[in-house]
Amino acid sequence: MKRFSFILLLAIFALPLSAQTVKGVLTDDETGEAIPFANVVLDKTRYGVATDINGFYLINKMPEGTYTLRVRFVGYQEYTEEITIEKKQTIVRNIKLKPDKKMLDEVKVTDNRIEERKIQTQVSVEKITSTQIQQMPSIGGTADLAQYLQILPGISSTGDQGGQLYIRGGSMVQNLCLLDGMTVYNPFHSIGLYSIFETDIILNADVYSAGYGAQYGGRISSVMDINTRDGNKKRHGGKLSLNTFGANILLEGPIKKETSESPFTISYLLSAKNSFLSRSSKFLYNQSLPFDFLDLYGKVSVNSGSGSKVNLFGFRFDDQVIGYQSLANFHWQNYGLGTNFMIVTGSSSILEGHLAYSDYKIKMTNQFEDSSSINNFNMGLDVTNFVGSNRLKYGLDMQLASTYLSYHNSYNRLIYFSPVSTTSIAAYITYKIATGKWLIDPGFRLIFYDIGVASPEPRISAKYNISDLFRLKMAAGLYSQNYIDTRSDNDIVNLFSGFINANANVFPDSFRSNTANTCIQRSQHVVLGAEYDFTNHLTTNMEFYFKNFNQLLNLNSNKMFDENDAAYKPGGAYEKPEFYLSNYVVESGFSYGMDLSFCYDIDWLYLWATYSLGWVHRNNGVFTYHPHYDRRHTINLLTTIRLGELHEWEISGRWSYGSGFPFTQTQGVYENVSFADGINTDFTRTNGIYGVVYGDYYAGRLPNYHRLDLSVKRKFSIGKRSILEVNASVTNVYNRNNIFYFDRLTFTRIDQLPFMWSAGLTFRF
Q1: How far is CA 40 from CA 93, 96, 230, 537, 745, in A?
Q2: How far apart are the C-alpha atoms of 270 and 315, rounded to whole Å?
Q3: pTM for the complete prediction?
Q4: DSSP structure string for 623-640
């Protein structure tokens, strides 16, 4: 492995410049912030690229000669420059785009998106910016990534409370979340309106619902890759926000500014988000909503001015639910520290890397105290080589994680795992090929797990541009992971999100008629789709997907007896089937479905509509069932209207519908006497505990879910740079009674959020 790493590093600088090259970085002239996904082209030629997440672009292998370099991006003035390039010459142009203060031309609004769809495969991925998130109704006074994710095709949400998202048939533990390269666990708050990420720090979020490339690994369903922006490099500024749900503050600015002598800069970005809903709900909404959280984030960016940069960042969040009706008390804690860097080499390559540590803990208190934790160290190194319109990318990734679990299931049996550490090392390579009307992106990832398992994982995505308006696409790949969820499938709702590392000493080789070759979970994805642009403003996307989860490990919700007690083992006095003894079970399953989306986007109007149809199946060796996140139909409608000469008014509405989730019904109840004194127990006077007889797995369906949210915003300019925004919103406009939780013991129904108004002020300076 050491020899391989040395060869990889040597290759970064060994690759020579490919013929003539133009490269550089695009930044905002007012803030110094990088501008991703802008179009950089040489006029009247086929040579052009889109800038990456760092604003970097590179065009090479063009003939020597004179060209017009043109840069376009929505909201900025167009940049043009005549350049003359000679044989084997490299021209560096770091360009500062000036914001366009005038009304945007309609063609410009969609220009970038159309061009990007032509040059990127973009299969099963949604690219999200903070601007798109802020088009959502500002529930609680603040639009949030968690709210936006719920309207994406293929994503099912448990609703307003719980913060649980399920993506195209995958469970929560099968979703990878990255923050600037750092692995983050459970990135959503207990109230489903908020993520742990402040909207204004997000530069870009890529959400892959299936078929993602070889640069990602360690999960078998989906990926959410979030990148934060740098602080303002030109001036100090920020944001203050106060609303009926909570308060936010953001501060940013330069530590060292760019000068005429040196383009070197240092900037900072700090944010804090706090909820006081547990206190405000009592007198504003006449009910108790005990959801409290505090999020902190900080980042320092060191930028060379030529594209190379290094970031230091950290976050911490604390989330509590105290005494929510019949539920237990919950407490989440999560923090992380990390660094990432980008080096623009003298050749046609860039080198990127990251190093991070994160720690997650959850505690649940009712009649018992249950807890789980995971701490993770991860590091990676990535190299990108530009070869004309093609790109070669390869790298290494390492994960070291330790987990702990102490948990009582629905039969009050303790499931305990002492701290267990596992390590995985992966190498990957991808090569994006653009030839004629084809875009092909094959890749290969090889993961070595420390339990002695190597997982080869080929991946591929492709797109065929039938015309400028119509495109076909596909993706496929193999995936693996070694994390297990701690949720019980018998719980109608369960906020206890714990994690366990798979290893040979913890999980069974077989259970019932299913056999596990290893304790690694595996899946295979296939996606087929099509894109069509009806006009410059109206686009549609349709995808069909299939995920085969051929090996899964899940919590055994039927465990009733201690597996270490010899009396219950085979040959014991009270021999019980393995069905009632094992902590975990081996399962298999698959999911399939179709996602359809429409987008209409002009200067003053944004319309977004999605429909998802899906099935999720699981088999435990005896019968097939639908897990609790199997939602058949999902519909989302979003409308944003901007009014006024300067678009100072914004009105947003969102309507969501989801067919009912399956759940395991209660077949009966009984008094369970423990007979603690053996035959001397007086069962006529001893009080037993309340026992439940469950029906067939997920034979019932909860009622359908639907909800309408509305919001209105008004912006006021104060001075040259400051803006005051006043907002008001209504959640659940027609007061739909959407079920959240049903207590089996008291037969009490608890619903999601009722009709709730909110109002707030945001001051940007």
Answers
A1: 11, 13, 22, 21, 63
A2: 10
A3: 0.89
A4: -EE--TT--SEEEEEEEE
Residue with tokens 């609703």: 159
Give the C-alpha distances (Å, rounded to integers) separating 96 from 71, 77, 304, 559: 10, 10, 15, 63
Closest CA to 650 of 134, 147, 152: 134
- The letter for the amino acid at 228 is T
CA dist 96 and 305 (Å) reads 11
Segments of 482-566 assigned E as strands: 483-485, 499-501, 510-511, 514-515, 521-533, 538-555
**What residue type is assigned to position 659 of the chain?**
S
What was the pLDDT predicted at 488? 59
Tell me the three state secondary structure of residue 325.
coil
Strands 510-511 and 499-501: unpaired
CB contact set of 129 (below 8 Å; sequence gap of 6+): 202, 203, 204, 205
Q: Is 146 helix (H, G, I), strand (E, B) or coil?
A: helix
Per 3-state DSSP, the chain is made up of helix, strand and coil in percentages (nearest 5) of 10, 55, 35
* Tens-place pLDDT, residues 556-572: 767 777 777 777 777 77
Q: How far apart are CA 517 and CA 534, in angstroms?
A: 49
202-208 sheet: strands from edge to edge: 125-128, 202-208, 222-228, 175-179, 182-183
Handedness of CA 198, 200, 203, 205 (dihedral sign): positive
Cβ pair 111, 603 in contact under 8 A:
no
Which helix (H) or strand (E) segment is 132 a member of? Answer: helix 130-133
Residue 168 main-chain phi, psi, to 5 deg: 45, 50
* Number of C-beta neighbours around residue 465 at 10 A: 19
Q: For residue 272, give the amino acid letter.
A: A
Top-ranked range on mean pLDDT: pick from 35-39, 80-84, 385-389, 630-634: 630-634
pLDDT digits (tens, 9 = 90+) for 254-274: 999 988 888 899 999 999 999
278 — alpha (psi -120 to 50), left (phi > 0) or beta?
A: alpha
The answer to whether residues 66 and 84 touch, using CB atoms and an 8 Å cutoff, is yes
Do 141 and 727 meet the contact criterion of CB atoms below 8 Å apart? Answer: yes
- Assign residue 732 a region: left if phi > 0, alpha if psi is -120 to 50, beta otherwise? left
Averaged pLDDT for residues 217-228: 94
Poorest-confidence range of 120-129, 176-185, 278-287, 318-327? 318-327
How is residue 17 written in tokens? Answer: 């410049």
Residue 609 has pLDDT above 90, yes or no: yes
Helix (H, G, I), strand (E, B) or coil at 581: coil
The 10s digit of each residue's pLDDT in 36-79 is 888 888 888 888 888 888 888 888 888 888 999 999 887 888 89
- Other C-beta atoms within 10 Å of 227: how many? 19
SS3 label, residue 198:
coil
Which pLDDT belongs to residue 418? Answer: 82
The pLDDT of residue 267 is 96
AA letter at 592: Y
What is the 8-class DSSP label of residue 138? Answer: -
Position 763 scores a pLDDT of: 94
Position 511 scores a pLDDT of: 45
- Burial class of residue 170 in the structure, from the number of CB atoms within 10 Å of its CB (0-12 exposed, 13-18 middle, 19+ buried): buried
CB atoms within 10 A of CB 528: 17
Give 332-386 pLDDT, tens digit per residue: 899 999 999 999 887 788 999 999 999 999 988 877 888 999 999 999 999 999 8
